[in-house]
Design goal:
The protein is mainly beta. The protein has no helices and 9 strands. Strand 8 and strand 9 form a beta hairpin. The chain has one domain: Immunoglobulins (Immunoglobulin-like), CATH 2.60.40.10. The N and C termini lie far apart (34 Å).
Length: 119
């Protein structure tokens, strides 16, 4: 794999009762021998949101051209989108796109899914 995706979630769960968000940090590293133009897409199900109002279930960022061995980071707050009483889990889908010359042409997609606890 030419792109390495690592994640860190602080705290390890999202508080539904107090509506406290968790911070998701994503680190993308170019392990290929040539520069890569990269973008990042995030998607959640209906239990989580990237906005405090609970309406944004997707996010996108252009990471730019990463040289071999170079890393880029992106962070987003995960908010609970409703006040439920039961603990559950929610998935966050992370997609890193390799582009050709501009962001309109996708050459390859690298996907990773993480599970987030809602307590």
């Amino acid at each position: 794999m030419t792109i390495r995706i690592s994640t860190d979630l602080v705290p390890l769960a999202v508080e539904k009762r107090t509506r406290e968000p968790a911070f998701l940090k994503i680190n993308v590293r170019n392990d290929s021998p040539k520069p890569q133009l990269l973008s990042l897409e995030l998607r959640t199900d209906q239990k989580l949101s990237f906005s405090k109002a609970g309406t944004g279930n997707s996010a996108r960022a252009e990471l730019g051209a990463l040289e071999p061995g170079q890393s880029a980071s992106f962070g987003a707050y995960l908010h609970p989108s409703y006040l439920g009483q039961n603990a559950s889990e929610s998935a966050v889908e992370i997609t890193v796109n390799e582009h050709y010359q501009d962001y309109a042409h996708i050459v390859k997609r690298h996907k990773k899914s993480i599970s987030v606890r809602l307590v």
